[in-house]
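G., the chain you wanted modeled:
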Amino acid sequence: MKLTTWRYLGLSAIMATLVACSSDDNESTSNSSYIQYYNASPNSTETALVLDDYAYSVVNFADSLPRYEYGTGTSELEISGLDASGEELTLYQSSIEFANTDNHLFMLVGDYGEPEVLDIVYRRSEMDELNSDESGDYSKMQVLVAHAAMGESSFDAYLGKQGEEFSSATMLGALNYKSYSNEQMFDTGDYVLYLTESGKTSPIFTTATLELTANTVYKLVVRNSFGPGVPKLMVDNVDSTGSPEQYSNIDANAEYRLFNGLNKTNMVDAELVSHQESQYLYELSQNQLTEFKAIGYNDYGVSISDSTTSEVLANNLLITFNQDESKSIVLYEDELGGTKGMTITHDHRPRAFEHQISLANLVADFDELTIYFVRSSETIESAEYQISGIEFTELGSISLPSDDYEISVVYKDDNDTLTLVYQSDVVPFNQAGNYTMVLNRDDSQPLGYRLTTFQ
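Predicted structure as tokens:
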């Protein structure tokens, strides 16, 4: 069940729906305040900001609403989410006083089982006044930074101009979890955000270039990351327009693992080569999944060879690893029996009541397949959850609530005749996190196909 997106629409809500402010809009001269909502609860479901019984669009983790104009006065604020049954759940309620020209960034933080809401109030009147100067000599923006990374230590945040040394950067604030800095004004331009340990002057986290070129207030939210990078942080640049830009540590490694889904080769070797680094994996048997292995961010040529004969099966498959990415490389055979590779990028964040399932169809024998996730009270015909029409080399996805499922892979021909391609035993989806599945040809199986599940 999705969140209810329409409730009673009061006068204040009508004002909010009429004016969504762009990133370079000056504040209105009317009697108005401004609101925005960002979800920093890492294991949350989709959530919604509700003001005076009006629910805005749902917001998932690490995403935000645009900045909206809203009326002044006292309003009833609520944050809604979903419970384990998919029913609407009230996470937070409060009365809020909206003053003229105030800006509010409401931010959901902490564990979804007991979340909190931060109300970050900032002003931009001085910036807007300077930018409206008729001489045109000013182009200003503002920056504040917030610490929303649950379980992570305190740090100091600095903002420096792109191309200059860290020593010339401006300190934005010393931040503990759930704290935030005041807004500071800068000339528009290209900048870099640095994080250091508290009281230290050596960066432990550096962003790529932040293009802070609009006359707006940039809210830089430091939140949890679940990739291989250290520290386990990501920075979201929340401007006024909606979905944030995400920045990982430019020095963070990536990680990968390899799954040998080849049916006609017993054992393979793999070589990953870039200009800076080479890595080798030897004697991977059929349907073997390796452990994750750290690798530097770069573009790599991947070569696959038969371990027994040294015959090259595939040469210079191109794989890109970006900072803080976690990927699986899946080997499979195409329609002509040639060796190919597919990459699956993983989202390792925990989820409160549901699991994100990614399924790669690497069977070339059928036009498209349907995957049914069947609970004990269901049949294929009544199954609530399914991935329909997934074609060869396509990656499908679905969110499943925690439960036990029997997984059936079915092909329907033009005459509506059903063929069972694969059927699993009962699979419990109850561990925190997400799952990846690979369907591939395997002549050793009773029906000739295998579905491998891993986290």
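The mean pLDDT is 91.

Shout if anything looks off.
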